[in-house]
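Structure tokens please, single chain.
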Amino acid sequence: MQSAAETVPVLEEDADGLKTEGPVIYIELDKPSASAGKEPEYMGVFTVSAYCGCSQCLGENRRKLTYAGTSPKAGYTIAADLSEFDLGEKLAIEGNNYVVEDKTAGNRSESLSIYFDSHKEALSFGIREVEVYRFPREESEHEGEYIGEFLLTGYCSCNICCGEDNGDMTYTGAEPRAGRTVAADPDIIPLGSEIEVGGCIYIVEDTGKKIKGNRLDIFFDTHDEAVVYGRRQEPVYLLKQ
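Here you go.
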């Protein structure tokens, strides 16, 4: 099985010869107010750039969805170096709150890149050194045992996801069902286990060549649904083995 293409924000020179890299600006910020009664954590000063959904910013990897499989929104979506940040994290920058929904290019020095609706707005933002704050994740009660943060992707039974010899059956021989079937590394979560992910209960009925370590592939009825689901980082709870 294979899942989810990557979005790579890359800003280049536009048709008018304007550079994407504006002057570096150092900004003194007041600490943002607490969100939902929780105090944000100061992370330090980061280099932040900007991007939009155009071909100049995304190059050949241009697509309508973010790395997390959502539709990007100005004033909300931010791309991050996923070795430093997690998908779904909430960040405060220059008094605005953003959610990490996208992935920055591996060849850029900026750890963060803010999404804008137009290339002109992205160019106007330029590149800045700003203070960044992280809001703590919401904690909720779960019946199962917490077993860690997993990278989640989506798949279906088509040739793109499973190859020509998929047989429309899972590794356990059960017919896959949306809302129930999930593929996992059996060395991490045994086949037949029940797990809770994002408030839903799944059964580990399948495996995959690329599903190794803390990685899960959730079954969908159609390829479009699997693509839209994208990639996301979620806590996983083991209910029963």
